[in-house]
Design brief:
Helix content: 25-40%
CATH architecture of the largest domain: Alpha-beta prism
Number of domains: 2
Shape: globular
Structural class: alpha/beta
Distance between the termini: 10 Å
Radius of gyration: 21 Å
CATH superfamily of the largest domain: Enolpyruvate transferase domain
CATH topology of the largest domain: UDP-n-acetylglucosamine1-carboxyvinyl-transferase, Chain
Largest sheet: 4 strands, mixed
Number of helices: 12
Number of strands: 24
Length: about 425
């Protein structure tokens, strides 16, 4: 799909999408809750659909109702010999330990860039928990056979917090007693806060000892009907807010400022850049100003790099963003991809160790760019194109379906001059 964007002025009000981080965790909890769960404000991105497919393959019943989903969980009872996590990094890392609660062998696979992502931690940790695992030299597919036997272990949290999320769910559901998961070098703490919030909502108790140890006392959650409302997505909402700062003013609704989501940190970057931002009950008004360069540490929120680069491109001076090391194993090597694709738009980006510097305020030129099959790259290029000189065309623009399938429609509703056509193969 080709998406072409002409310089545009945005105005109006838009609702932020549902959080796929929140939605996928809710799906896992609903599977493990041996009762009926109602999920309100569910997401429908590709990653969300993959999570629903996984829990159905593991025995959950899913019914769509007005305003939400009704999920009947029975614990992990695989009805199929294989599950597919699509292209969701969270999906594979979170569901693998959960799948291991069953003694049935299950093959876990994925698609696209997920096939090349490292999965070595399964080979290292699973045998310590009595789980048989066969991987493709640290890559997918995985064959997993439990049952998982909770015991005190130590894991390295520097690569991803998502595996820890899966272990926390699996230990809680297994009724782990007097054991701990010890963690060194934990990154993305806010995502673990979200995991603990969802576990607590469903009645599981985990003691967080300064993010270095997570202790299980053996208290199990009662099987009872519950409801869970999926939060608005700060990851997708960040692109809307940056679009407002560049080409607004607009109003974004549905983002909770009390959320534990890591990407809520976009608010600080917007304030530091000088954007006009007003936060009121249930809504945020965001508009352009004389934007200036800022410094930001994205180590705990690496998904903010793409919208931050789009923002920095319009900020006078050199913006510095730390945390580049977290970008190598995303849908693309995001640091290099941002450097190359924004380079086509006339933005100079330098990579020096763990730091990215962006030369902003010099104007952008319309160009043909490529999503690299990375949803956040496609959205970053679209936002940057709103005030470029001339038209910008994004190739393989359908990458947005991974997390925010309504993104182009939402920009169009706000007044963006966008046209979409099928890409010839």
């Amino acid at each position: 799909m080709l998406t072409t964007i002409l310089p545009s002025i945005l105005k109006g009000t838009i609702q932020a999408p549902a959080s796929k981080s929140s939605m996928q965790r809710a799906c896992a909890a609903a599977l493990l809750n041996r009762a009926e769960t109602t999920i309100l404000n569910p997401g429908y991105s590709n990653d969300d659909k993959a999570a629903l497919g996984v829990i159905q393959a593991l025995g959950a019943e899913v019914k769509e109702e007005a305003g939400g989903l009704k999920i009947t969980g029975k614990g992990v009872q695989p009805g199929k010999a294989a599950v597919n996590c699509g292209e969701s990094g969270l999906g594979i890392r979170m569901f693998a330990p959960i799948i291991a609660l069953s003694e049935k062998p299950v093959v876990v696979n994925g698609e696209g860039s997920l096939l090349s992502r490292p999965m070595d931690f399964f080979d290292e940790i699973f045998p310590q928990l009595g789980i048989r695992v066969i991987s493709n030299k640290g890559r997918l597919p995985l064959e997993i056979q439990g049952p998982l036997r909770p015991r005190t272990i130590t894991i390295d949290g520097s690569l991803s917090s998502q595996f820890l999320t899966g272990l926390l769910f699996a230990y809680a559901a297994a009724g782990a007693k007097d054991v701990s998961i010890r963690v060194t070098n934990l990154k993305s703490r806010p995502y673990i806060d979200l995991t603990l919030q969802v576990l607590g909502h469903f009645g599981w108790k985990v003691e967080n000892r300064n993010y270095e140890e997570f202790y299980f006392s053996g208290l199990t959650a009662a099987a009872e009907s519950r409801s869970y409302r999926v939060e608005g997505d700060w990851s997708g909402g960040a692109f809307l807010l940056v679009a407002g700062a560049i080409a607004g003013p607009i109003t974004v609704k549905g983002l909770d400022t009390d959320s534990t989501q890591a990407d809520k940190a976009i608010l600080q970057a917007l304030k530091d850049s000088g954007a006009v931002l007003t936060i009121r009950d249930g809504a945020m008004d965001i508009g352009p100003a004389a934007l200036k360069a800022f410094a930001f540490d994205a180590t705990d929120c690496p998904d903010l790099f793409p919208p931050l680069v789009a923002l920095a491109a319009y900020c006078e001076g050199t913006t510095l963003i730390d945390g580049v090391g977290r970008l190598a194993h995303k849908e693309s090597d995001r640091a290099l991809t941002l450097q190359q694709e924004f380079g086509k738009l006339g933005v100079a980006i330098r990579l020096e160790g763990d730091r990215m510097s962006i030369e902003g305020g010099k104007g952008l030129k319309g160009a043909v760019v490529h999503s690299r099959h990375d949803h956040r790259i496609a959205m970053a290029c679209a936002v940057a194109a709103l005030r470029a000189d001339g038209e910008t065309t994004i190739e393989e623009a359908e990458a947005i379906n991974k997390s925010y399938p309504d993104f182009y429609d939402h920009l169009h509703q706000l007044g963006a001059d966008i046209s979409i056509k099928k890409q010839l193969v």
